[in-house]
Structures are given as C-alpha cells and as structure tokens.
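Design job #97: recover the sequence.
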C-alpha cells in the first residue's frame, strides 16, 4: 500500500477509506493506548488522507475489543495533536462513549474544524440537551448549522426554549433548518396564544422569512403544513413588536414574500393573503415605524439595511392594476446574504417556485439588462432559473419566447425530469402591447438597486458594447456584480486566456480567473463605472485584479501568485 501523502490525497473516497481501515484496524484492540495513539499519529501523518475520510471509515469498522477502543478514543481526544488523530478519537467515542466523555467532546466542539463530528458524537451518545445548548452558545457561527439541526431534533422544553431565542444567523439557518425549527417548537400553537413575548413574535417572523429563502432547492414554506396558520397568527401579533430596525426588516421581508414570493402559492382563503398585507402595511405606516426608515445608523451593516428598507418599503403595498404578466426585481434583507431575483408573475402567481423546484429565478441583470425577455418574431430560448447547485448538476428552467402577431407566446418549456410525475407547463399567451410595456417598465426600473450594484450594471453594459476593453488584455468578461459579504463593493471577474486577443488561445492550456474589487467611494455610479472602463482601456487589469480561480499550477506557469486560504472574496 503506497504511503505517499500526495498519492493518498488524490485517491477517491472508497480507496481512502480502505486505506484508513487497513491502517487503523490492527491498533484499535491494542491495550497499550499510549503506544497505539503514538502509532496512529505517525501512520495518519504518512497516509495523507483528510478528516472526513477518518469519520466515514470508522463509522462501522468492527471493534473486537470495545474497552480498548474506548480507552484509545479517550486518549486521542484528550492528548491528540492533529485533527486527524482527534477525529479518530471522536469517531470511537461516538460509538463507545459514555456520559463522562461529554464534557471533553463539548470543548473540542469549540474548534470549527471539529464541530461537525463532535455534534454527531454528542447526538449518538444521546447527551443532555444542555450540552448541545452550551456548545451552541459558545461555538463559532459557522458551526451553528449542525448544532441547531441537532437541537431541533430534541423534543424537550429546554430545546424549544433555546430555539425560540436562538440567533438565526443566515449562514447557519437555511430554509430547511428554519422549517424544522418551526415544527420542533410548534410555532403555530405558540402564536395562537393571545399574548406572547415579542422575542417569540420576532423569531416567528425570521423563521417564516428564512423558509422562503433562495439558498435551497425548493422554498421550504411550501413544505410547512401550518404555513398559512402561522402567517395569520404572526401578522395578528405584528403590532406588538417595538419599532426597531430588525423588526422592520422582519415585517418587510414577510410582506415581500406574501406579495410576490412562494408564499403566494399557499392554500389561502379568498382575500386572506391580501388582508394580511393590508395589516402589515397599517403597522409599518405608523409614524414610529416610518421614523426607523428615516434614520441613518453609523454602523455600515445597519445603514445598508435602512437603505434597503427605503427602496423596498412600498413594493409589497403598491396597489397598482397590472396585466397578467409582471416582472418584479426583488431584493431580500441584506442581512440574509441571499441573491437578487427577477420574479416572474403570471396572473399574480410566481412562476418559478410553481414550475421549478430546483432553484430561484435568475437575476434582473441576466433577464432584463440583457434584453432576454423581449419578444421578437424570431423565437428565443431563455433560461428563467437555474438549479441551486448549478445547471450542470440538477438542470434549469427554459422557455421559448416569440411574438405571434398581437400576442407574445411562452411555450416549449424545458426543465429537468423528476422522480414524481408532474403536469406539463402550459402555453402562455399575453397581449403584445401589455407585454412590451411591462418589459420596458421592468428594464428601466432602478428603484430596487443600490450604488455598487448600479456601478456593476453600468460596467457590464460598457463591456457588452466594448468587449475589446478586456480582450485586448487576453481577458474574457465573467460575472459582474456586488460582493457577497460586502454588498457596497463592485466585483468584476474575468478569465485570462493567453492568446485570446490574437484569436490563438489554447483551451487546453493554462488559464486563470481574476476578480477586481471596487469599493464604493461615494461618487455617482455612472461616474464610477466610467472611471473603471477607462482604467480597463488604459491598464492591464491583471496588474491590479487578484487571482481567484484556475489552479496553482496554472498560476505558476503564467507567473502569478496563487491566493492563500482565506484570501478569496466571494460574490453574489
């Protein structure tokens, strides 16, 4: 069996697990735990596998001497000097541990790289809920997702109390976790009480909003049996909330989804959803709430939310008569770090969550700025939505749009097959005049956008008109938008293909992706974009953008430094 770390790192899952089993099995029954632990450290170091291989390999490995294996697990979790060795100990205690091991596992769970296996071990040991709650109160936010899932699986008062007061960090609580929490705490029943704590009311709003989120395949609100009951009860309690920025954001988020999001598809009684929107509008129209929207916080994240509130405050409440076709650019609460989508509504119903259960609608820039939704006599196939995990994995939703006399026709749908049979999508016909007017309105609507996003849109438009601004530097434009964690920065990505300008790029040769970050400097977006386009025309962007994709070997071959872990800037 080869022992090269480089060789082992390249092995597939099955081969790596086999290597772990063959390496560790003879040591697990050794009564001399000191010698066995030292040998495990040495062997794992030369094996060159990853932490997750250890957990998978030991999950069902036969343990001939449980007492010896338990003692070894305790020694490794208490004295281990590498995550690989400690993971061996955690895996052994997950199967053989006892209550005395819980305190040690809790402390190990504070380390982000060990949080997931520790939560698995604590759950396997059926530890007291208090242990999971303690860890959740002290662990890093990135470890919360697994902890919250584990606590939501507990059916006891302590778990429900913590979940009703837990911080719902957007990175830890996605749509499916939010649904599980709502079900675990029996949210609809709690909200049915006449008077409840305002923290519980706010938490209910957060959970409802998270269940409609875009970071999942299908909005989980559609899988929540008590959704309409919970919405009705939440709105009935909304006036009890003190007028704070966080509460305003919660109420507005709920209203936006009741207006044009997946919750429109719930089984509402006639006029019920509209009544809930009118009730939320009445609350937010109170002077004490409008004062929140008019404030100007000093903290950047809070200021960003206030500006979002000002832009979106009227969107769910505007009582306009529209044709049966509408496109609404919708931005979620900036604190949720979700994407912006162009919601397509037909007869008032959001098309994407009804027709496609794999992801959200595409962005306004993709569907509107590009003119893709315009109707011409020449049929055009348009991607309306892409799977959450990318089209290459789970597909996308396509429709063919064409003009047919005084009508616009949407037909010839394409979407990935599903295990369960589903109805075919119908052909939709719209009045051409109404359709054209709506597309023109939507394309010219900038009310939803913010300075950094407007800068990005102007740069993208400039590069569509003058692609040579990048190709002259052997660059091909990629994604252009705003930073995922810093939405006040404009991000311009491009791929460097040597030889592109001369039409001689080698598609099989080295290439790199670059990202250019432009922080908002307070100048008008059109001026910022003009300056950026002028800089692209005059200076090679590879001299001021940073490498963010490709490979280390490509970077070395092309003479650029490869980014170290933690250097990357995510975008959305």
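Job complete. Output follows.
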């Amino acid at each position: 069996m080869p022992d090269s770390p480089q060789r082992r790192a390249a092995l597939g899952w099955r081969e790596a697990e086999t290597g772990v089993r063959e390496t560790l099995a003879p040591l697990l029954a050794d009564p001399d735990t000191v010698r066995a632990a030292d040998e495990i450290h040495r062997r794992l170091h030369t094996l060159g596998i990853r932490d997750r291989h250890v957990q998978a390999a030991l999950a069902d490995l036969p343990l001939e001497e449980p007492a010896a294996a338990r003692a070894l697990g305790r020694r490794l979790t208490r004295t281990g000097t590498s995550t690989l060795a400690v993971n061996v100990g955690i895996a052994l205690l997950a199967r053989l541990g006892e209550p005395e091991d819980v305190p040690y596992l809790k402390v190990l769970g504070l380390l982000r790289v060990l949080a997931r296996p520790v939560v698995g071990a604590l759950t396997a040991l059926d530890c007291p809920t208090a242990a999971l709650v303690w860890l959740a109160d002290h662990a890093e936010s990135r470890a919360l997702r697994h902890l919250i899932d584990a606590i939501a699986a507990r059916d006891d008062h302590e778990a429900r109390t913590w979940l009703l007061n837990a911080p719902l960090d957007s990175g830890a609580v996605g749509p499916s976790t939010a649904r599980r929490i709502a079900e675990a705490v029996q949210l609809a029943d709690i909200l049915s009480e006449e008077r409840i704590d305002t923290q519980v009311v706010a938490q209910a709003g957060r959970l409802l909003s998270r269940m409609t989120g875009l970071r999942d395949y299908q909005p989980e609100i559609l899988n929540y049996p008590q959704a309409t009951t919970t919405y009705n009860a939440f709105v009935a309690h909304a006036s009890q909330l003190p007028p704070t920025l966080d509460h305003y954001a919660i109420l507005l988020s709920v209203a936006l989804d009741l207006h044009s999001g997946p919750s429109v598809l719930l089984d509402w009684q006639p006029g019920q959803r509209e009544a809930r929107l009118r009730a939320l509008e009445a609350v937010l129209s109170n002077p004490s709430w409008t004062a929140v929207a008019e404030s100007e916080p000093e903290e950047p994240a809070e200021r960003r939310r206030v500006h979002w509130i000002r832009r979106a405050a009227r969107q769910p409440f505007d009582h306009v008569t529209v044709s049966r076709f509408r496109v609404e650019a919708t931005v979620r609460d900036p604190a949720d770090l979700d994407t912006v989508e162009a919601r397509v509504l037909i007869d008032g119903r959001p098309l994407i969550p009804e027709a496609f259960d794999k992801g959200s609608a595409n962005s306004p820039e993709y569907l509107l700025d590009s003119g893709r939704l315009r109707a011409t006599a020449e049929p055009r196939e348009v991607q309306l939505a892409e799977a959450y995990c990318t089209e290459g994995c789970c597909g996308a939703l396509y429709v063919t749009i064409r003009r047919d006399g005084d009508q616009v026709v949407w037909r010839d749908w394409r979407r990935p097959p599903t295990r369960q049979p589903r109805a075919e999508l119908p052909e939709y016909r719209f009045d051409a005049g109404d359709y054209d007017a709506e597309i023109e309105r939507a394309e010219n609507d900038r009310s939803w956008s913010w300075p950094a996003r407007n800068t990005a849109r102007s740069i993208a438009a400039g590069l569509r008109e003058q692609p040579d601004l990048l190709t002259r530097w052997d660059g091909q434009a990629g994604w252009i938008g705003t930073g995922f964690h810093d939405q006040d920065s404009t991000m311009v990505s491009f791929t460097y293909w040597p030889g592109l300008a001369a039409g001689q790029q080698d598609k099989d040769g080295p290439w790199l992706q670059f990202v250019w970050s432009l922080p908002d400097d307070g100048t008008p977006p059109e001026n910022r974009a003009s300056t950026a386009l002028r800089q692209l025309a005059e200076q090679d962007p590879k001299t001021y953008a940073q490498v963010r994709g490709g490979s280390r070997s490509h970077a070395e071959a092309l003479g650029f430094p490869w980014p170290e872990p933690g250097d990357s800037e995510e975008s959305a």
